[in-house]
Amino acid sequence: MFSAKIKSEVLREITDVISTLVDEAKFNISPDSLSVRAVDPAHVAMVDMSVDKAAFEEYKADEGELGIDLDKIKEVLRLARSGDVISLDHDEDRNRLVVHVGNITRQMSLVDTAGMSDPKVPNLDLPAKIVLRTNEMRQGIKASESVSDHIALVAHSDGFEMISEGDADTVRLDLPKDLLDELQCKEKVRSLFPLDYFSNMVKAISGTSTLTIHLGNDYPVRMEFTFAGENGRATYLLAPRIESE
Amino acid sequence: MSSAEGSKTSLRELLQVSKSLKRTRSRLEKRRILVQFLSGLRPEEVSPAVLLLTGKVLPESKRRALNVGWATLSKALESSSQATLLSKELTISHVFETFQEIARTHGRDSVSRKRRLLQALFAQAAEDERDLLLRSIMGEMRIGVKEGVLLEALADAVRAKPELVRRANMFMGDLGRTAYVALTEGVSGLKNQSLELFTPIKPMMAEMADGVEEAFREHGEGLALEYKLDGARIQIHRRGGRVKIFSRRLKEVTRSLPEILALAQDFSGGDLLVEGEVVAVDDANRPLPFQDLMRRFRRVHEVEAAAEEIPLRLYLFDTLVMKGALLIDQPYEARWKALAEAVPVELLVPRLLRPTLEEGMAFFQAAVDAGHEGLMAKDPGSPYTPGKRGKRWLKVKLAETLDVAIIAAEWGHGRREGWLSNYHLAVRDEEGNFHMIGKTFKGLTDEEFGKMTRRLLELKVAERPYVVDIRPEVVVEVAYNEIQKSSHYPSGFALRFARITRIRDDLSSEDVDTIESLRTLYAKQFERKGRLRR
Q: Do A194 and B82 touch (CB under 8 A)?
């Protein structure tokens, strides 16, 4: 069984975090929390996210799974006004999600979860750790977008850099150590990533003020952040582009 | 077939099989290799594996849906340096699912989403695997196993007669599905295949004859001659009073042809499938140019207005189902009888049964005088063989024209600057390989050049200096003055003074005339022209 009430803003945050990578997701439901683990169709990026009961206005659930089409949730969110509380109830007999927003009730058919398995999170040993403000990162991405379609993340003992090199122009965001919340980095590391993925991920975490980045050399990046007023935690993994000479 | 718990088959294994097939020339050995490979597949892998082995990515009906242009493909290749998170060996199933996903992707961001999917696929593929995928995507038919060998291997695998497998495949029209049915349901599954109303079936095709005399030589005295109309071929299905109309390329066109639909509702004969030709006509019932007809086919909006502007005439010439009974194994003459009983006589194509040669020649002249293309000659004892081209049906045309595919095009100079204006023309062989037989930049209007350029660029698969190679999907009818021996083209033939007479949107690359026809036509030229002795 699953029955919950949630503020529309919080539901939007949850939806955004996942929908940047997949259109449909399997939500794993438990009495205390709700979680999703999904990999994008190209297997380039992964999200691993969980939200505590406390993020909800009301929350009652047994162990279970809900296959949800995130576009439908977005349609519902478009109907919601700021401050609206949305209620979600699983109608188990018909396997539908009954959604109330304002005076509207939407009977939402669920997606079959049979073919949706939880991907295994790869075990990554990433030597550098950077904690920074999400706003800074957003600026860096904004500056890069017109220049190139990939972006290099670089960490060294003095700070963190984002570099985008196009055919003609180069954009570089420098964040020296004192502008970072935290920096652990003994040796310089550098990895290159597809900008479209990276940008979409960072844009999806609107409600987040700080971001923890774990970085290696030509290795995937792991980004950790909290959302939904610290009641949600998520990890993004993004595979690098391999630079060939 | 191995159990569902068996491990998934890798693309690598398929590639190995494809390589060993290439290494042997023995048909028996090829069959043995195929049987062994196909029997070891999981059920859901059968169709995708067969498609990949024959150089395709999706079933025929969906092939165009991939819709990946050269730009997307080359971008994906360029960035195939993108790593993936879950590195696994590529499986046949995963490859197929990715292609399906690409085909499903449309709307906003679809180009970049398609590119990402391709990227991920290429990133996981080794070089030779990438090569196989690329060639399949670009629709290069030159690679792969031939349909005939594959059908025989399927017959071996389930101990069926090859004829049974061939027949089932003819009804399904999809080699992947045929393989799936054969391997999962065996002989009984194959026997259950039949023609289904409302599922379009590939039409029977005709070889080219050089003249009425040749038709007589081929079919003997008992032959039937029908007008060959300058129109578009359609098949009309009717079941339980409902009617659906399909084009030559198996696309449903019911909504574009309301007056044909109305005619079909009045036929007697219960559940039926009849085949015919629609021709655009003017007020005096004279055939209108082919382009006007094509406009009607594309039209889905304001059909009524179009129907008034460009009236159509229907001429029927065959039936595959009548009163619910399958007639394809019946001889031509019996099918015609069934057709004639069910439809008004004025809808039957003008025809002459068992004519003398003289009557036949006069009939040919009458067809041409009435503005039609020429004649169809049909062997009265012949069954209907869907999707097959053979000599049981022959086309006799006045103009020396061939239906050819455009396989490449050259950028124009001077007045034609900015247009792809010199087209490389090709005929095909039995196995679907294309052979170039000439070039032409004649026959199109400026407007058509512009349109053709855009269309060809969408089909681009590679760019050389001055020349763009394209997927052979555009079919044109070309007229020519003579077929010459050529050392320039590997095909051995060249068309002299080729010019485009029509853009055949109603035809697909499978309808392109064969090198065999060309060979025959070449030999026939000398019956009229005389030959220089060397």
A: yes
- HEC per residue, B367-423: HHHCCCCEEEEECCCCCCCCCCEEEEEEEEECCCEEEEEEEEEEEECHHHECCEEEE
Look up tokens 């990133």; give the residue. Answer: B123
Strands B475-479 and B467-470: unpaired
Whether B4 and chain A come into contact, CB under 8 Å, resolves to no
The answer to whether residues B159 and B187 touch, using CB atoms and an 8 Å cutoff, is: yes
Q: Which member of B79, B84, B113 has the closest CB to residue A43? A: B84
Pick the residue from chain A with its C-alpha nearest to B80: A241
How many CB atoms are located within 10 Å of the residue B101 CB? 15
Backbone region of residue B97 per phi and psi (left: phi > 0; alpha: psi in -120 to 50; beta: other values): alpha
Residue of B nearest to A218 (CA): B83
Residue B260 tokens read as 């044909």
pLDDT tens digit sequence for A214-243: 999 989 999 999 999 899 999 999 999 877
CATH architecture group of domain A2-39+51-109: Roll (3.10)
Per the structure block, which two tokens stand in for B35? 């049987």
Assess B117–A contact: CB distance below 8 Å, yes or no: yes
**What is the rounded distance in angstroms from the CA atom of residue B317 to the CA atom of residue B88?**
55
Tokens coding A212:
């923890």
Q: What is the 3-state secondary structure (H, E, C) of B298-331?
A: HCCCCHHHHHHHCCEEEEEEEEEEECCEECCCCC
Nearest to B83 among A119, A149, A240 (CB): A240
Look up residue A161 and give its two tokens.
Answer: 């850099």
Cα angle value B209/B215/B221 (rounded, 5°): 175
Domain ranges, ordered by start, for chain A: 2-39+51-109, 128-238
Per the CB < 8 A criterion, the answer to whether B344 and B288 are in contact is no
CB-closest option in A122, A149, A242 to B81: A242
Q: Catalytic residue positions of B?
A: 228
Using the beta-carbon criterion (under 8 Å), do B84 and A241 form an inter-chain contact?
no
Backbone angles phi, psi at B428, to 5 degrees: -120, 165
Chain B CB contacts of A46 under 8 Å are: 85
Residues B493-522: what's their mean pLDDT? Answer: 87
pLDDT in tens, A43-61: 889 999 999 999 999 999 9
Q: What is the ipTM of this complex?
A: 0.82
Query: Residues in chain B, how many?
Result: 534
Tell whether B82 is within 8 A of chain A (Cβ).
Answer: yes
User: For the domain A128-238, what is the CATH code?
Assistant: 3.70.10.10
Fold match between domain A2-39+51-109 and domain A128-238: no
How far apart (Å, rounded) are the C-alpha atoms in residues B59 and B135?
16
Half-sphere exposure of B398 (CA within 13 A, CB side): 18
Structural domains in chain B, CATH included, are: 11-191 (1.10.3260.10), 205-397 (3.30.470.30), 401-527 (2.40.50.140)
* Nearest partner of A164 among A184, A183, A143, A181, judged by Cα: A143
C-alpha–C-alpha distance, residues B38 and B186, integer Å: 13
- Spell out the SS3 assignment of chain A: CEEEEEEHHHHHHHHHHHHCCCCEEEEEECCCEEEEEEECCCCCEEEEEEEEHHHCCEEEECCEEEEEEHHHHHHHHHHCCCCCEEEEEEECCCCEEEEEECCEEEEEECCCCCCCCCCCCCCCCCCEEEEEEHHHHHHHHHHHCCCCCEEEEEEECCEEEEEEECCCCEEEEEEEHHHCCEEECCCCEEEEEEHHHHHHHHHHCCCCCEEEEEECCCCCEEEEEEECCCCEEEEEEECCECCCC
B-chain CB neighbours of A24 within 8 Å are none
pLDDT digits (tens, 9 = 90+) for B209-261: 888 988 999 998 889 999 998 889 999 999 998 999 999 888 889 988 999 99
